Amino acid sequence: MLCPRACGADRAAGERGFCRAPALPVVARAARHDWEEPCISGVNGSGAVFFSGCSLGCVYCQNREITAEIKGKTLDVPALRDLFARLRDTGVHNLNLVTAAPYADTVAEALEVPPGIPVVWNSGGYESVETLKMLEGKVDIYLPDMKYRDAALAERFSAAPDYFSVADAAIREMFRQTGPVRVDGAGILQRGILVRHLVLPGFLGNSKDVLEWFADTFPRGSVLLSLMAQYTPNGFGGPERRLREEEFQEVWDYMAMLGIRDGYVQELSSAESSYTPPFDGTGL
User: Fold this and answer.
1) pLDDT grade, residue 107 (50/70/90)?
2) For residue 238, is pLDDT > 90?
3) Per-position b or e across 237-271, b if 16+ CB within 10 A of its CB
4) Residue range 222-251: average pLDDT?
5) What value does the mean pLDDT take over residues 20-47?
6) β-strands 182-183, 141-144 pairing
7) Mean pLDDT of the 147-163 span
8) Considering the domain 25-275, what is its CATH architecture?
9) Where exactly are the structural domains of the chain?
10) Are 2 and 131 in contact (CB under 8 A)?
């Protein structure tokens, strides 16, 4: 019952739900990651922990190797705490928990011992408000996607026709918990929310609708936005081409027209599979 699908799978008894996750967290990689936004990665990198399984079914997922399959090492609460401490001791700016939502109860328990650096909850935005409340006081930075306002697109590409209403409620809860963004003297995010939106080739109306939601929902400067251009075809059912420069410019111009200026705009050159790290058990 941790995610909005509320499938009721008894994972402790070996049942698997939509996310395919078992009862205990499965981690595929834990290492310094330099490819997040500058306020997350900084100069020392982000301590990224990649969890296997996902409550979304995004056909274009760059991490499909671990979101569509369960791959990695099973870790209990003491093992997670040890992993978090080892990553912290490498000098990274933060602890970046990537797609940890299927294991939110166990991760929340592990975070009852604070890791000593800001904790980032990096997710697809499709989250249960009740589950997010378990993380209050334990997560400093939320890094959610807002993928769709178009329900047909959400169903077609992510098997989640209710995506927008769910993500809207989830991100509002995240903002309630963290309040406005705070950065340190080096420009590294210490608290707050950074919302990501990936522009899909051929679906600019969806992106413009998401930008309107963002502009209407949050006071200027209180939440950061990352407009992303890294869509890469993978042959599993998403758009079959990359984003064109004129498409991305149109969305960028619309963002500027709405007065959204706090955050990041990704370069088109980021649409490369080489930015996806190997899920080979590094750091475990």
Assistant:
1) very high
2) yes
3) ebeeebbeeebbeebbebbeeeebeebbebeeeeb
4) 95
5) 97
6) unpaired
7) 98
8) Alpha-Beta Barrel (3.20)
9) 25-275
10) yes
- 């370069």: which residue's tokens? 267
β-strand pairing of 95-98 with 46-51: parallel
pTM of the model: 0.96
What are the structure tokens assigned to 183, written together? 């950065």
